[in-house]
Amino acid sequence: MTPDSERTMCTFLGTAGKINENDVSSDAIKKSEIIFLEGYLWDEGEPKKAFDKAINNANKVAMSLSDLFCVDRHKPHFLNLVKTKLDITFANEQEITSLIEAKNFDEVINFSKQLNKLVIVTRGEKGAVAVNGDEIIECAVQKNLKIIDLTGAGDLFAAGFLNGYINKLSTKECLEKGTEMSSKVIQQIGARL
Description:
Layout: H1 26-31, E1 35-38, H2 46-57, E2 61-64, H3 68-73, H4 75-85, E3 88-92, H5 93-100, H6 105-115, E4 118-122, E5 128-132, E6 135-139, H7 153-166, H8 171-185
Parallel strand pairs: 1-2, 2-3, 3-4
Antiparallel strand pairs: 4-5, 5-6
């Protein structure tokens, strides 16, 4: 497979579907400035109870929509989370477009503006965009990267962004940190730097 060919990730959630509210420490969450949830772990039943417990005890909640499959499978639930429970939403362009059934990226921007919450959209070769109310901040991709494996790009982007966020960097600097981290991981095999 060449770096330019289309890649599809097939996710095996395995034991993640067994997560339950006993796995969530209310005390640890209350002491945390922000929690980060993965859409991969959201499911009806016990995982949903774990999510609810985490969200209800959190100071701030960030979540990645994780994957187009997750969005399509849980669309009404994810849409409700984005609108009512999350402070920060991470999504790639495909995920957020599917979530709100947008016809174009302008609709994604308008939806995000109306939320009046922080929405981060990664757009592959088009960079990343942060929308917070009427504030729209863009960040370009790093050039001349030798792309080997896209595994972990979204997670590392979110990690870099949130690191900047909790250290009170500007939104632009947070986007740049996210871009830097994801740029590193896509130039190697595997998701661990």
